[in-house]
Amino acid sequence: MGRNSSSNGAPGSAAPRIALTVGDPCGIGPELVLRALLDERASAARILVVGDEDVLRRTARELRVRWPFAAVDAEPPRSTRWTRPHLLAVPGQAGEDGYGTGLISAPGGRAARAEVERAVQLARDGLVEALVNGPVHKESLALAGNGDDAGGHTDLVARLCEVRDVGTLLVAEGFAVGLLTGHLPLRDALRKVRTSRIVDRLGLYDGYLRRVVGRPPRTVVLALNPHRGEGGRVGTEELREIGPAVEAARERGLLVSGPVGGAEGFARAADGEFDLVLAMHHDQAVVPLRMLRGFDSAAVTVGLPFVRATVTHGPAMDLAGRGTASPASLLRAIETAARHAAAFASTVAGEDNGRAPGATRSEVREVPAD
Is residue 6 very low, low, confident or very high in pLDDT (cuts 50, 70, 90)? Predict the structure, then answer.
C-alpha cells in the first residue's frame, strides 16, 4: 500500500526492529543492502542485517559504497536503544575459493539459507518485529541441500515456522495485489480457480489488510477469461467459480467487487478505487503491476507469526558486481515491513492463532512459492 496508508512509527526506539537478510552473495543482494541502508527511507526501521561480513566489506570497497553499519555483532543486540543499522555476521559458506560473482552455486545457496534460518529464529524469539529478505536463486538453494528449498524463500520461511497456510500480497504505492496461486505451471494454476479457494484467499487478505489500512479493504476480483467469459461463450469460470465466490464473500461482510477484466481492475485500483486486486494466477498479477509501478513493489507473506516482506525480483546474476542494480524493491520491502509491524503492534499480543498478525484462518494448505 502507499506510504501514507499507515504510520511507519516514530524514529528511534519506536521504530520496528527488522532482520534483513542479504540473499545470495553471488547476486546483487550485497550491493542492494549497502545502498538501501544509506537511503533515508531505510530509517523507517531499526535494521539488523544478517549476512557475511567479508562479502559486504568487499562489495563496499569494490563499488565505493560507504560502510553503513554502526557495529558488527556476533550475537543480536539485546538493548532496545540502538537506532543505526547493525550487522549480525554469519559464518561464510564458500570455503577458500570464495563465492563466484554471478554464479549459480551451492555455496551461494548455503549462505542464503543460513541467513534465512538465523533471521527467522530472531523473529520467532521476539528479537525483531519483522523479517525482510534479499533476493535468492532457487537453483542455488536446491544445490545447497536435498532439494526441499527449490521453491524459494516463502517455502523455506514457512517450513521454519511450521506453517503451511500462507498467501502472497504484492504491495505497491496505493494498492496491493493478492495471488490466488503462486509459482505453478499455468495449467495447474487454472485448476485451482475454485470458489472455495477464492473465498478463502479473500478472507485471508481482508483480515490482514484491514489492520494495515485501518478499515475493511475494498477488493476487486479479476476475471480469468477474456471479456469475463462473455456469458460462458469463452470460458465458464466466471459463472461457475469466480462470480459465486464474490457473492459468498459479500455475504460474509467483505467489500468485494467483480469479476472484472484485468485491465479494468488494475486501472481502477491505480486510480484509488480499490485497496486490493485479487489475481487468478501469477502473471496476471505481476505483469500489470510491473508496468504500473516498475520495481517499486514488495512481496508480503500473509499467514506467518510475524511480518515478512521481500523483493519482487531475483538476484540478477548478470548484473552482480556492476553497481547498477536499483534498491527500489528492497526499500519498498523495508518500508512495508516497518509500516505493517507498527500497525500490528497494538493487536498482535491479543492474537493466538499461530498465523500472521491480523490474518484470518484459511482451509487452503498449499504454500505458494515466491
Answer: very low
Q: How far apart are the first and last CA of the chain?
A: 19
State pLDDT tens for residues 216-265: 999 999 999 999 988 999 999 999 999 999 999 999 999 999 999 999 99
- Is the per-residue pLDDT at 266 higher than 90? yes
pLDDT at 230: 84
pLDDT value for 320: 93
DSSP letters, 233-292, are TT-SHIIIIIHHHHHHHHHTT-EEEEEE-HHHHHHHHHTTS-SEEEESSHHHHHHHHHHH
pTM attached to this predicted model: 0.89
* Structural element, H or E, at residue 176: strand 175-179
Residue 14 has a CB neighbour count (10 Å cut-off) of 12
Confidence of residue 165 (pLDDT cuts 50, 70, 90): confident
Q: Which pairing describes strands 307-311 and 297-302: parallel, antiparallel, or unpaired?
A: antiparallel
Domains of the chain: 1-163+305-352 (3.40.718.10), 174-295 (3.40.718.10)
Distance (Å, whole) CA 323 – CA 60 = 10
Distance CA 78, CA 76 (A): 6
Torsion of CA 113, 115, 118, 119, to 10 degrees: -110
Handedness of CA 120, 367, 328, 348 (dihedral sign): negative
Tracing cell 553471488 back to the chain, one arrives at: 26
Q: Please answer whether residues 223 and 229 qualify as being in contact, where contact means their C-beta atoms are separated by less than 8 angstroms.
A: yes
Q: In this structure, are residues 269 and 277 in contact, taking their beta carbons and an 8 Å threshold? A: yes
